[in-house]
C-alpha cells in the first residue's frame, strides 16, 4: 500500500464497528448523537440539583427529538452522495452513463460534477479508441502527435519552396481558475470554443492543433503579411456561457514566430514556446476566473 495514501484515523476507527461498517449515514448520526448527549449529561453532572425526574425527562425528550430531526436532515443532505455512488457503480459495472447535476459549487456539487465529467471523458475516449490517433477527441483538432508530424512535413516543404511559415502558440488565461470555479466540464467548453475560434480564423490550407492542455498550436502557411498582429488581434479572447447563463470572457495569450528556413524541428518548437513565454510576460497575470 502506498505510504502517500491519505489516512483518516477517526473514520477508520468508526469503520471498525460492525454496525457502522457499511453506512456513512450511521457514522454521522452517531457523531451527532454523542454531540447532542454531551451537553445535557454535563449539565446534570455539574448541577446535581437538576437531577429531578421532570428535568431529566424534559432533557431526554428534547435530546431525542433533536437527534431525530437532525437525522432526517442528514439523510436528505446525504442523498446526493448516495446517488453519486450508485451511479458511479452503475457506470463501472454496466457502462451506464450517469446523469448528475453540474451546477452546484460546494464540495458535494464538485464531486458530482467531477464524476459526471470523468464518466463522459471515459466514454468519449473509449468511443474514439478506434479512430484517428492523431486527432484530439474533444476538439477534433490535430493532437500533439499529429501536429508534430504535420509541422515536420511543412518545414520540409517550406525549405524546398523557400517560403515562410508563421507559427502561433496560444493558451487560455485563467483556465485553471475556470475549472476550479465552474468544474472540468466548463473547462471543456472553453477548449471547444477556442478551437472553434481558431478554425474560423485560419485560412484554407492552414491548420490548428491542441498541443497540450489549454495550449494550442497554429501554422499559417506562406504568410506574407509584414506583421502577425492583425491575426493575433482576432485571437484576443473567447466568450463562453456557464450553466447558470453567465457570460465569461477568457483572454488568450498568443506567441508568434516566423519560420524562414532556419533550424530543425526541436529548435523551431523551442522558439515558438519561448515566444509564448514572452507573450505571457507582456500580458497581465490572470490566476483567477475571467470577468463576467
Helix and strand topology:
Blueprint: H1 9-15, H2 24-46, H3 53-94, H4 107-127, H5 144-161, E1 165-172, H6 175-182, H7 184-201, E2 207-212, E3 215-221, H8 229-234, E4 237-241, E5 247-259, H9 265-282
Antiparallel strand pairs: 1-3, 1-5, 2-3, 4-5
What does it look like?
Helices cover 55% and strands 13% of the residues. It has two domains: 118 residues, no CATH class; 139 residues, Alpha-Beta Plaits (2-Layer Sandwich), CATH 3.30.70.270. A five-stranded antiparallel beta sheet has the order 2-3-1-5-4, sandwiched between helices. With 292 residues, the protein is an alpha+beta fold.
Quick structural gist:
With 292 residues, the protein is an alpha+beta fold.
**Secondary-structure element string:** HHHHHEHHEEHEEH
What is the CA-CA span between the terminal residues? 45 Å
Please identify the structural class as seen in this structure.
alpha+beta
Write down the overall mean pLDDT.
Answer: 83
CATH architectural category of the largest domain:
2-Layer Sandwich
Shape: elongated
Overall tally of domains: 2
Total helical elements: 9
Amino acid at each position: 500500500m502506498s505510504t502517500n495514501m491519505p489516512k483518516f484515523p477517526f473514520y477508520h476507527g468508526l469503520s471498525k464497528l460492525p454496525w457502522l461498517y457499511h453506512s456513512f449515514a450511521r457514522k454521522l448520526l452517531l457523531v451527532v448523537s454523542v454531540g447532542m448527549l454531551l451537553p445535557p449529561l454535563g449539565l446534570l453532572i455539574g448541577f446535581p440539583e437538576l437531577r429531578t425526574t421532570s428535568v431529566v425527562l424534559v432533557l431526554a425528550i428534547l435530546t431525542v427529538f433533536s437527534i431525530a430531526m437532525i437525522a432526517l436532515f442528514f439523510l436528505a443532505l446525504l442523498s446526493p452522495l448516495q446517488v453519486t455512488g450508485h451511479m458511479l457503480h452503475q457506470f463501472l459495472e454496466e457502462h451506464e452513463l450517469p446523469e448528475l447535476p453540474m451546477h452546484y459549487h460546494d464540495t458535494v456539487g464538485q464531486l458530482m460534477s467531477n464524476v459526471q465529467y470523468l464518466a463522459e471523458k471515459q466514454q468519449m475516449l473509449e468511443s474514439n479508441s478506434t479512430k484517428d490517433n492523431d486527432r484530439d477527441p474533444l476538439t477534433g483538432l490535430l493532437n500533439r502527435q499529429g501536429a508534430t508530424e504535420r509541422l515536420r512535413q511543412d518545414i520540409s516543404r517550406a525549405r524546398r519552396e523557400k517560403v515562410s511559415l508563421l507559427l502561433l502558440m496560444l493558451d487560455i488565461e485563467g483556465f485553471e481558475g475556470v475549472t476550479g470555479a465552474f468544474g472540468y466540464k466548463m473547462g471543456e467548453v472553453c477548449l471547444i470554443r477556442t478551437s472553434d475560434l481558431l478554425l474560423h480564423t485560419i485560412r484554407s490550407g492552414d491548420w490548428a492543433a491542441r498541443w497540450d492542455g489549454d495550449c494550442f498550436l497554429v501554422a499559417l502557411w506562406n504568410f506574407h503579411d509584414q506583421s502577425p498582429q492583425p491575426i493575433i488581434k482576432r485571437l484576443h479572447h473567447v466568450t463562453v456561457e456557464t450553466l447558470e447563463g453567465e457570460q465569461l470572457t477568457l483572454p488568450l495569450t498568443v506567441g508568434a514566430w516566423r519560420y524562414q528556413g532556419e533550424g530543425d524541428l526541436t529548435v523551431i518548437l523551442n522558439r515558438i514556446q519561448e515566444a509564448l513565454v514572452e507573450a505571457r510576460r507582456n500580458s497581465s497575470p490572470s490566476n483567477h476566473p475571467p470577468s463576467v
